[in-house]
């Protein structure tokens, strides 16, 4: 893993180089010499946050209308409480 540090000005002038550098590790973007932002690949971000795809993301994806999904209805019956 390689850590790259660039200034905000360098980032603005060469975003594509920064994105390429992010494939090898995080890119620290400084503002007036202080770290202000971090650019990383999406895979690294997911690994860092341990994100997993949830049902809301899956249902929001394009082409969802083409997937048939008809879940069975659940019937919940009540029972009288036994206080003995």
From TrEMBL:
Q: Pfam families from the entry? A: PhdYeFM_antitox
Name residues in a coiled coil: none
Chain positions covered by the region annotation Disordered:
1-23
Q: Residue spans with biased composition (Polar residues)?
A: 1-15
Specify the domain of life of the species encoding this protein.
Bacteria
InterPro entries annotated for this entry? Answer: Antitoxin_Phd/YefM (IPR006442), YefM-like_sf (IPR036165)
* Family note: Belongs to the phD/YefM antitoxin family.
Functionally, this protein is described as follows:
Antitoxin component of a type II toxin-antitoxin (TA) system.
Name recorded for this polypeptide: Antitoxin
Could you read off the lineage of the organism from its UniProt record?
A: Bacteria, Pseudomonadati, Pseudomonadota, Betaproteobacteria, Burkholderiales
